[in-house]
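Hi R.,

Here's the chain you asked about this morning:
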Amino acid sequence: MDDDFIPKLGRPRSRGNASARRYLNRVRQAVENAKPGRNSTFAKRPRFTGVRIGRGVAAGHMLAARSHPFAKLRSRRVVVKVNVARMKGQGIGAAKAHVNYIQRDGVDRDGSPGHLYDATSDDADGKAFMERRENDRHQFRLIVSPEDADELGELKAFTREFMNRAERDLATKLDWVAVDHFNTDNPHTHIVIRGKEPGGEDLVIARDYITQGFRRRASEIANEELGPRADREIARMQQREVEKERFTSIDRDLLSLSDEDGVVSITTSRGAHGRFRRALILGRLQKLKKLGLAKEGTAGNWHLSSNLEPSLRRLGERGDVIRTMQRVVGIDKGTSSFGIFDPAGGFQKPVIGRVIAHGGSDELKNARYLIIDASDGRQWYVDAGVMEPGSVPPVGAIVEAKIQRAEVKPADRTIAEIAAKSAGQYSDDLHAAHDPNASAEYRTAHKRRLEALRRDGIVTRRPDGTWLVPHDYMDRSGKFEVRRSRGARLQVLSWLPLEKLAEREAATWLDRPDATNIAKAARVGFGEDVKKARERRRQWLLAQGIVWKVDQVSQDQLARMRQSELREAASAIARRTGKAPVSPGEGSRIEGIFTRTIDLASGRYAVVERSKEFSLVPWRPTLERRRGTSVAGIVRGGHISWSAGRKRGLGIG
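And the predicted structure, written out as tokens:
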């Protein structure tokens, strides 16, 4: 017999609580997906998530389940960031650069370089570690930052216990090295783990353990060392969040309490804890009101901005940038002399100036920032994005930062065209039928593009290898490129500092029109220095008899000086190595080992050596992937088409 039930009706016009609305939305979505013609065959199949793949599945599930709000509030907070870095192609050089970077000067307590350590030694052999990882498919890079790092004492002991527990959870030994950093407000540890198990198999770690397990194990150790946080400590932490100009736990609670229109109702609360929490929320809402992210309505209702979270996250990033600049440029300077180059913020004029500092904006992914003393008299923070190893301009170099325009890739046009003819589907067979001349490698490149878009939620891959392409694919792939090209487009105008350019027989940046324009508009700072250097340059050229009248050096004169500088540099290398310099001509083939670079006034050049001879060729960032290995290329039309690397016909000129 069926059980009787009595429905409990809500108030008229009531929208219900947030959890009920979320459940209702899930029901509606399930009904919509079950309709005929909505991929019902595919919907019956369980979606593959990979959640049960890899080591640490059970431990990851167990640790992820420990999510009681009260327990999380009491726990010591430890931020753990994880990046799985590929080791093929450019990743090989990037891995070496990452290990070198985390050992850079100024990261220890006394300002000295960082020291590698591992499970048994305080002085680990970084070179041996890099040699062991030579054939690894990937590696894991972690940043572990305990909120109470100063109270934990020695971070080495904390890190070793953390890795011991990870080994027990994953049921395998881990080959790792670490470096402690004390150059920021929050001491933290960089850990690099090889992507191989002791038996030589690829180390695959379960997704839950990466997202939850590492962090909860680190928090567990901090709790054991310092004890759970006391009520007074928790209250102080939450009170500090009220005035923060970043996304906080209070903001997360506000979003969970809001309805689908972004309205939060503040009601009276009982008990001391309820009244304290209500005071926190009201104080935070007043702060958000000042920031233009919340409006007060009637009867205790508040309207939250639809851009609340992204706006607060941008504010947090801006605050981090300003603190970085104050630390590097000088805390006595006001923020009015600072600028943040933000390509995503709309129109942004190019910034030209000299590099006065650089560092890591995302130390897990080798993303870099530059601080530029610009011609407008301001110091600009420029996020340069992920840079090839060896391509970071040194302090003193003259650079130009521009907006990096995102363009729709040709592969996207091909995918959209095939999908339009195939009811929104793409596959390797459909591509082959669409273009019989397309090679297998060419079609694979399109599938790699789709895989990148799948990770961003733009396309869906079926188990049979067919891709479901949305009707607005071109628009969404274009927005994907805009998000990915957030970093500035950086061009090095001179690898040598300004003071080394004035008296040099070479084609220097001072001879270019943009230097002339800066000198004419100069008032202070870098612009004034350019004006003085231009005058010195004019006097030197006249004294050497290279020119008789200097308004602007002709192209022929620049070409002669460029060749003179190259001959002098080649002669110096020949004297040191005993090898003969070879100048490649049109159509000639260049082969050898890319050994190093040299910085000249006319640009940076790569040295490609053979047993008895060498060539100086224009350097490009992609060559850094092959440093120390063989490269080959052909000179065509003044450019060099390199056959090195993963891509065919890579043009560098």
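Residues 496-553 form one domain.

Let me know if you need anything else.
M.
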